[in-house]
Amino acid sequence: MNATIVDVLIENIRTDQGLLEQTEAQIETAKESKRQVVDRLKDYRRDVTVLLKYADDEQRKRIEELGFDFSESERGLNPVASLVLDIVMKAEDNQLTNAELYEAYVKTFKKKEDAFNYTEFNIKCRSLFNTQRLLRKKGTDPKSSRDDIISLNGRVLSKEDDKSAPKQTDVKKASQTDKKPANAKG
């Protein structure tokens, strides 16, 4: 009687091992199929991001119903980059070292753990440099980015500057004749 129970147990183990191999093969096939579909969806997202400007409101609505959110891509900034841009704009002379910028970013969180680490933070900010909204001037240590000077590209007009600055129509541009001496010929 023991031999038949053992034989049944051995047969059950063999059967389940075979089923396990079949199931694992099916899982691998399904994973590969999933990977292919995910890659296609990523390609579609890139395509839609590029072609969205040609879509009318109805097409945009249908695309958003498919789960695509384009509010971030229309702005062109992720939340970290938006926050960093605000920090730099509020900074004195619109510039900070990268370490100061990261510290200011971390201070915006109630818990430090909620902030990205320094490396991820820099990756999230890369779009600001790629679009040249911010400029990076290499610091004293070429191996570290913490000393790099991060500054706003261009100048931000404060409300006082905006009112006191002469309007373009009030400024006379020097013409070529204004620069010539009186005794010079035409």
Quote the average pLDDT.
Answer: 80
Number of separate structural domains? 2
Whole-angstrom Rg: 31 Å
User: Strand order of the main beta sheet, please?
Assistant: 1-3-2
Assigned CATH architecture of the largest domain = Orthogonal Bundle
* CATH domain topology of the largest domain: Arc Repressor Mutant, subunit A
Top CATH class of the largest domain: Mainly Alpha
Helix content percent band = 55-70%
Strand content: 5-15%
Distance between the termini: 123 Å
SSE succession? HHHHEHHEEHH
Number of DSSP-assigned strands:
3
> Structural class of the secondary elements?
mainly alpha
Largest sheet: 3 strands, antiparallel
Number of helices: 8
Shape designation: elongated
Region (Disordered): 137-186
Keywords: Coiled coil
Coiled coil: 20-47
Biased composition (Basic and acidic residues): 138-149, 157-186
Q: What order do the helices and strands come in, and which of them pair?
A:
Elements: H1 2-51, H2 57-65, H3 71-75, H4 79-90, E1 95-97, H5 98-107, H6 118-130, E2 134-137, E3 149-152, H7 159-164, H8 176-179
Antiparallel strand pairs: 1-3, 2-3
Helix pairs in contact: 4-5, 4-6
Describe the structure.
- It is a single chain.
- With 186 residues, the chain is mainly α.
- It is 59% helix and 6% strand.
- It contains 8 helices and 3 strands, in the order ααααβααββαα.
- It has a 3-stranded antiparallel β-sheet with strand order 1-3-2.
- The model is unreliable at 159-178 (pLDDT under 50).
Q: Can you give me a brief rundown of this structure?
A:
Residues 138-149, 157-186 have a biased composition (Basic and acidic residues). The chain has 186 residues and is mainly alpha-helical. It is 59% helix and 6% strand.
